[in-house]
Amino acid sequence: xxxxxxxxxxxxxxxxxxxxxxxxxxxxxxxxxxxxxxxxxxxxxxxxxxxxxxxxxxxxxxxxxxxxxxxxxxxxxxxxxxxxxxxxxxxxxxxxxxxxxxxxxxxxxxxxxxxxxxxxxxxxxxxxxxxxxxxxxxxxxxxxxxxxxxxxxxxxxxxxxxxxxxxxxxxxxxxxxxxxxxxxxxxxxxxxxxxxxxxxxxxxxxxxxxxxxxxxxxxxxxxxxxxxxxxxxxxxxxxxxxxxxxxxxxxxxxxxxxxxxxxxxxxxxxxxxxxxxxxxxxxxxxxxxxxxxxxxxxxxxxxxxxxxxxxxxxxxxxxxxxxxxxxxxxxxxxxxxxxxxxxxxxxxxxxxxxxxxxxxxxxxxxxxxxxxxxxxxxxxxxxxxxxxxxxxxxxxxxxxxxxxxxxxxxxxxxxxxxxxxxxxxxxxxxxxxxxxxxxxxxxxxxxxxxxxxxxxxxxxxxxxxxxxxxxxxxxxxxxxxxxxxxxxxxxxxxxxxxxxxxxxxxxxxxxxxxxxxxxxxxxxxxxxxxxxxxxxxxxxxxxxxxxxxxxxxxxxxxxxxxxxxxxxxxxxxxxxxxxxxxxxxxxxxxxxxxxxxxxxxxxxxxxxxxxxxxxxxxxxxxxxxxxxxxxxxxxxxxxxxxxxxxxxxxxxxxxxxxxxxxxxxxxxxxxxxxxxxxxxxxxxxxxxxxxxxxxxxxxxxxxxxxxxxxxxxxxxxxxxxxxxxxxxxxxxxxxxxxxxxxxxxxxxxxxxxxxxxxxxxxxxxxxxxxxxxxxxxxxxxxxxxxxxxxxx
Length: 792
Hints:
4-stranded antiparallel sheet; 28 helices; 61% helix; alpha+beta; 792 residues
């Protein structure tokens, strides 16, 4: 590392010209970079629920549809219904809309002149209010229609669009959602409300918000970082250099994404701002070390050479720990987090390379040749950051018992909170409550039923199973149980068709869906099915009647609540349903709920990996595992407090907050490593450890405070995001950075006061003295390790 930094200082102009040329070339690819929100981004590829969902799609088609909701107090009138029909005709003509389901297409099953009629409810729009009321009454007894396509009083009507990306256009959802919006906007003044709700609309809204965030967060990140660095470093150069290396790294990272055809997603959209915020930390340490050397009276060449030698290894180690912090996120099973971890870690690796090659070069070019008068220790300690750091240091040393007690109490509080931490994985959780999309979803839930769905697949593998009353009664029993729980909004199944047919054939009367009943003989079921085309109910039963499904609509968006509800349902199925029936529960909401569990597991795995890396890297440098523990403990404390805060304040672990702990651990350990490296240099050949610690606090206070404040303010810019997980990510990361700053000057000095640090380089340097030591009677009988520890 030292050689790379010295190489940069030796050939500044050639290096900078090459970097600028590469950056200019890379920038030509940025126009091909796209924003894309994928349906698969929140899933785990080998999740059994996801695999089952794909199988369900092949058997029964897609249950996730785009809903156009018409709401008006006079909706069920001839004039209003004609306007709805006109809108449906326009929507049907859109490329990609393969099916439109509404009262204008769904069969009103009834007996007319001894014949089963399958004509749609609104095949013809009646003129008289009496006829319209009769149709509305027919919908009230049809379980497949009421609160699915129309509400009880006829003031809300849904048009369900089934979409198919036939041409495999990556921008299909964005295009179709906006085409639908263009059509319905012309009907806004004809109804009280006309809204679009569905996954394409949700993803398109996310895409728009991502673009807005890019235009907002990036400029603020640059401005805040520049101000923070200029004030902290008391130098314009100290502000410009980190911005230069960050912007070059961003261009190269985005160019790589464009070349590899990796689109910008919700999470990768924050990578540029992260590179600006996180990538600046090593620049600050290099500049601070160089400036400190110049203030000590060194020439430019001497200051750069000493800087390379003093902190070269620390910079390499801090890059490794930060890099692995982000790489560990890539071990998560959820595709969205996996992609973010890979892109972010690659961006930070590029930033490390650019920083190592360009910062010494820029310092060499911009440095004044005038040699400054060396600044004495008293003058250094009088500056603001050293004064604050020394105050914390002195308080800790003079109040060890009080400090320990406070830390223990904080730890207990954090553990209690962490035990209450919950996980959540809900796409609608991205949005603030006052956004249009949340209002639309809430309106749909209020008027009809929740937009979330899951399917209960029942099968035996035996043809004709679900033409038998015995097994149809099992479906009926399960539907009644689901409806009785009050947890779900609506169930629909093949049974609902049969009950409508049986009511008509039996010439029964019904006022509500509760009055419907199944036929009691198998031959009646087979006879009824002869009158109806299977295409009418293909979404609920296969053609050979060996598999069927119950479709459940609900409005449970909290993953934990849904998981508990599904667990109760699974227990009921196991205890009460015929064992001959094989049952699977799947669907997009189930897949999302399972994703929460994968997130929690990924969080634990990433933290464990990160902790092992920190201990291993630092232990190798300082040739003792104790040093690794010293580096880890001060940075685990803020992470534990983070989990405590999230638990106590009911902040869920989601796609945004799941990253905070690992990223924070990877970043915060940087300051600890720099502190330990500086302390090692200060304590060599000195017996006064306390003074060595005081000198270390003075030397490291400026870069550590500057990087910490830059990180805190930088992460706070994410609070301007449109997405709740990103907002939480910003605030929580800023909190952890502040806690890490404090613990660096509390726990780290305390722990270092108990051990003496020896580096691998010290051991290597002593090899030259090995023969002398072996012959010396003073060290007779000592091992090599004893020689080293004795020497120090």
